[in-house]
Design brief:
294 residues, globular, MPAB/Lcp_cat_dom
Length: 294
């Protein structure tokens, strides 16, 4: 729980939480991509994104903003997390979209849509971490889902309506699957997620020669990203891969798991200062101050 002094507030979760353990894994970058592939299979959810988001013109900026929000909720102070949730709720409250199938206008912050986004996100985080080799027991997974009800509340959901165990998440997926399908928005989103334009610095496009730019687009950065995207797709549930036109074979699960385990080993070998963001570092400093004061 939050400390009395805001300077030493450990936020919604704290160092003893499963949430902190899960989100310390750099391999969760694969989980974020996996969740987007899943979310795109919900016709209304993907229509809402397509009609309200500039993800095609600024995909990397949107990714950074989303990652910052998640980091703030997980590692920020209680006040920072609540303020981030307040801003997000205000943004969603102003958004509307049109259902391509029915022509009906709907709100982006409908509970069913918020719940779908929340569940696919947290399920992707903990599933990816576990399949990558993180030491998480069944009880840890259930605890993580229960803890993440606090994050669901920040976006405007009633925590009691949000799955809080692995069994409840599995049951939720069974209930929602009849609503899922591949739409034009889903297909376009999948293609875009798999092969987005590579990120550029603020002055790179006009300073880099065409040959160098092509080398960057077609060289190691592009192939590294394609490998990550392929792993994210392979980690999807079999039913989701089938909706995308792929195969839900066990061999795909095995190859994806081997790939994500290798990626985790590689990322964990990178010096921590290169993978730790400022929000995480601030949380660790607050935790260290509290521990020293005991």
């Amino acid at each position: 729980m939050a400390a009395t002094d805001p300077a030493d507030d450990l936020g919604l979760f704290g160092p003893e939480s499963v949430t902190w353990r899960v989100h310390q894994e750099p391999v969760l970058l694969v989980a974020g991509l996996r969740s987007l592939y899943l979310q795109a299979l919900h016709p209304r959810a993907v229509a809402g994104v397509a009609q309200n988001s500039g993800y095609k013109t600024d995909p990397w900026g949107r990714l950074v903003r989303t990652a910052t929000y998640v980091a703030t909720v997980v590692y920020g102070s209680t006040g920072q997390a609540r303020e981030a949730g307040r801003r997000l709720r205000g943004l969603h409250a102003r958004m509307r979209a049109v259902d391509p199938a029915t022509g009906e206008t709907f709100r982006i912050d409908e509970p069913d849509l918020l719940r779908w986004v929340h569940v696919t996100e947290v399920e992707s985080f903990v599933t990816t971490a576990r399949r990558a080799g993180a030491a998480l027991t069944d009880d840890d997974v259930d605890t993580y889902y229960t803890e993440q009800r606090l994050a669901a509340e920040l976006v405007g959901l009633d925590p009691a309506t949000v799955p809080g165990t692995a069994a409840q998440v599995a049951d939720y997926y069974r209930q929602v699957r009849p609503e899922l399908r591949l739409t034009r928005d889903s297909a376009e989103t999948m293609v875009f997620l798999t092969a987005p334009p590579m990120p550029w610095g603020p002055s790179m496009p006009w300073k880099m020669s065409l040959p160098l730019r092509l080398a960057f687009e077609l060289g190691p950065p592009r192939w590294a990203y394609l490998g990550i995207a392929g792993t994210a797709i392979g980690l999807l549930p079999g039913w989701a891969r089938r909706l995308y036109g792929g195969l839900g074979l066990p061999t795909t699960d095995l190859s994806a798991e081997l790939s994500v385990r290798g990626l985790r080993l590689a990322l964990n070998a990178v010096p921590r200062r290169y993978v730790e963001g400022p929000i995480y570092q601030a949380a660790m400093a607050r935790a260290a101050r509290l521990e020293a004061a005991v």
